[in-house]
Design brief:
two-stranded antiparallel ribbon; alpha+beta; Sip5/DA2; RING-type domain-containing protein
């Protein structure tokens, strides 16, 4: 018969993310509350999409358009409430600061909880 290992949990391995994709590069405004370490961990764990280089067009058709900046990306962050996508850099710019409790877009509730 076969060998069975009990009690061992197999974890799905996430693809490695290049270091440069864990840092925002095209922010419009300074983000004083940005926790670079937390951002790095969220991207590495797959909870937040990497900071991909934007494209002007869809290219091969696999890219998705961010409804805020209108650039195309290989993947977007998804809102739990409506499933709409938003790129990481737009997400960071719209995310409420620690001094403000106002949530400006539903996807931002992901980070407030």
């Amino acid at each position: 018969m076969g060998n069975v290992v009990s009690g061992v949990q197999i974890r799905r391995r996430l693809p490695a993310v290049e270091e440069r994709l864990t840092r925002p590069r095209r922010l419009v405004r300074e983000l004083p509350d940005l926790d670079a370490g937390r951002l790095h961990r969220l991207i590495r764990s797959g909870d937040l999409a990497p900071c991909f280089d934007p494209a002007e067009d869809a290219g091969d058709g696999q890219a998705e358009e961010c409804p805020i900046c209108f650039y195309f990306y290989p993947s977007l962050n998804r809102s739990k409430c409506c499933g709409k996508g938003i790129c990481t850099e737009c997400f960071l710019q719209l995310m409420p600061s620690k001094t403000s409790n106002a949530v400006q877009y539903p996807i931002l509730q992901l980070m407030n909880n």
